[in-house]
Prior knowledge:
Blueprint: H1 2-29, H2 32-38
Amino acid sequence: xxxxxxxxxxxxxxxxxxxxxxxxxxxxxxxxxxxxxxxxxxxxxxx
Length: 47
């Protein structure tokens, strides 16, 4: 019974760590301010 609990908790911890490192890598690689620099948002005026 203890092996089952430790396996499930260990799996959840490893899944959480991998998700954290993936999000950290993507947030540093995909900088959202670069999009505005390359392709600025057009100015739209509604009349």
